[in-house]
Structures are given as C-alpha cells and as structure tokens.
Amino acid sequence: MVIWLLVATLGLAGLAVPANAQEFEKNILTGGPSGTYIQFGRNISEAAAKCNVTLNVQESAGSLENFLGVRKKRFTQLGIVQSDVLEYLNTFASDDPAIARAILGVRIAFPLYNEEVHILARRDIATLADLTGKKVAIGVEDSGTFLTASLVLDLAQVAPAERLKINAEESLAALLDGQIDAFFYVAGAPTKIFQNDAIDGARFHLLPIDDPTLQAVYQSGQIPAGAYPFQPDPVDVVAVKAVLMTYEYSPARNAYHRESCRAVSDIAHVITSRFDDLRTNGHPKWQQVDLNDLPPGWNVSSCVNAGIDPAYDLTCEGDVPAAAPQASPESAANSAYRRQICATIGC
After folding, report:
1. Count of other CB atoms within 10 angstroms of residue 113
2. DSSP E strands, 25-134
3. What φ, ψ does residue 287 adopt, rounded to 5°?
4. What single Pfam family name could you report for this chain, choosing any that match (predicted)?
5. Residue 66 lies in domain
6. What span, in angstroms and rounded, lies between the C-alpha atoms of 127 and 125?
7. Is 243 helix (H, G, I), strand (E, B) or coil?
8. Rounded to whole angstroms, how far apart are CA atoms 111 and 286?
9. Domain boundary among 220, 241, 262
C-alpha cells in the first residue's frame, strides 16, 4: 500500500516556477508549527543571520514534501527528511522510474539527530498490538510520519479499524475529544505539541514500542522521563534519523544554479562555524547531532563541501581558526566532507 501512495505523491509533484522574476531567495523546508524540524530551521536561520545570510524557514507537511521540494521547487535549497524515507526511496528507485526520477540529483547536506516515534494513546491501550481494531491517526500523506506510521503498523502486523490521514494538531484535538484512540507523530523529543497541559496523564500516555521486528529495522530510542508534563517515566521506542538534504547544483550551468550553490555553501559554513553555538543555544536535540553519521547510499553535495572548507569566504561573528584536517579513507564526496568536518568542529 505504501509504495503506491508514495508513487502517487511523486507523480503529483511539479516544479514551482514563479510567474514573474523575483529577488533570489534562500529557503529551508521544515515541518509543522509544533514540530522539531521547524525549531531546527529557525535555529539555523538565526545562526545564518549572524553571518549576514537570510534563510527563510518554510512550514511543510513533512519529509516527503521536503524531499520533493529540494528536487523540484524553485528557491528551495534545503529540506529536512527522515532517514527511513531516504532508505525507502533508495530501495525502490531501481524498480520504479517515478522514484528514480524523484531522487535524481538529491544530495545530503548534513546528518542531524534521531527522531523518536511518538504514539500518544488512551491509557487503556497498553501496547502497539492493542491498536488493532482502533481508530489511529497516521499523519498526512506527504509527511514522514505517514510513511513511518504505515511501515510500523504493517511490519508489526497491527490492523487498525481506520487510519486517519490528518496532521498532528488535528490528531491531538481528535484524541482529546474522544474521536480517535491514538495518533503517531515522528519528531525529536521534546517536541512542542506534547508540551501541552491539556494532555492528562491519567487519560493518555505514550506507547512503548518493543516489537522485535521493529527493533531490528529501526534504531532503538527512548523518550526521557519528564520530557512532557504528562510523562513521568522514560518510554522505550524506535527512532529514525533526521537528515538535512539539498540538490547537486552545478555553478557552471546557469545563474540560478550558481546562486543556489552559493546559498547551500553559505548555510554549510554557518552550521559548521556556529556549531558550538547551535548546541549551546538551540533545540536540545543539537546536543545529539553527529555530523559524521552519514546515512548509507547517499552522497554529500559538492556545494556543502565547498562551504565547509576552512578557506570558504564567509565571515561570521565569533569565527575561530580551524584545526588541521584529519584524513578519512572513504569515497570522494563523503571523504572530503568528513575531512572538513573534522577540521572545523573536530572528530
């Protein structure tokens, strides 16, 4: 089921070209207003401002829209995507021409943090298996939550009576009103939507995810005790990695590609040169970002590698000289990326 819905989403995507000429913009696609993606986007935008770079933070439905945005949407150089979306696309690209076309030219900018799979449910629902026969919201179709929730339910052989395709805010309202029994939301904890006093711990809780099949497919994760007002104890779950994606712009091709590549390089330089500040003052998940943890099967953008070069020409407040680069035996683009990351923030 998931593959056909994904192909349909890819088929509907198109290149958004403005009707009239406009000032060159730099944009990052993030997620909904209550998620962790948008907070990361705002952190990066605030850091970029200290380097005299304007990065517009755009809300979106989530990972699939963000992936397609960096591939097809004009003036959209960056988007945050879940790693299981990337793995899913890569797996089916060899068998499906629509997916192969969709991933053409998409590249990694930076690996980010692990995102926990949250399932908020009525208190009488104790396990993932108990969602069989229940009404469960799984996110809108072009979101990473939708893909992950669909895969989790299918892999665990859980069959809800109804899968509602609504966003997180609508899902929470429906759960509180008794219209549904549970909803999925994939985001780095703590995420804003669950920091809500209306969620009564006597009525609702986060489901543990301990299915052996899911633990084999996904990374282990834990939502720490006290991450949310209603949650006094830690909850063991599964997690996916958030990855900042971009496109492989070719500066020699035309002015748009040249300016877009410069935009990506600027943001790459901002993230590496302001990394300590982001970890200190940004969302708590910055503490878990490992810039060397590249997902398999995807290459780093050449524009990113240009931006993380210590000699890159962009002055930011508080810049410090880079350490000597460390060698890393790996393939071309990713090897260059690792050398520069080690040079800038250490390994």
Report:
1. 22
2. 27-29, 56-58, 78-82, 106-122
3. -65, -20
4. NMT1_3
5. 2-112+242-316
6. 6
7. strand
8. 11
9. 241
